[in-house]
Amino acid sequence: RPGGVGGFGKSADYSDDGPRGSRHNETAAYVVTATHESEIDYKKEEKHHKNLEHLGEGGVAAAGVFALNEKHRERKDPEQAHRHKIEEEVAAAAAVGSGGFAFHEHHEKKETKEEEKDSHGK
């Protein structure tokens, strides 16, 4: 076939009408506007840190459960006990790291609240 197998060797033609005939500027989705401190959306930033904090808490729970499961397998499978012990320790380290991340995001959330309070003069 001309242009490669299955047409993958062809380049897309992006004219002013776009690839499907619609008129749009492809770089418009990535426009960054300069913000001043008074224009920062503190509620959105606070929500972002809250969501990341909850994500970290979920990581703590998941890694903790995995570590306990590996501890159980270590006792039940004596042939692979060393492997399960290592995996348990790795999972415990992941839980500690995730807890640190959640703690960090908690303080970022508090800092955002304080910045909002300071910016509005409350």
TrEMBL record:
Residues 17-26, 103-122 have a biased composition (Basic and acidic residues). It holds the Pfam family ABA_WDS. Residues 1-27, 94-122 are annotated as: Disordered. InterPro entries: ABA_WDS. It comes from the Eukaryota. Belongs to the abscisic acid and water stress-induced protein family. This is Abscisic stress-ripening protein 1-like.
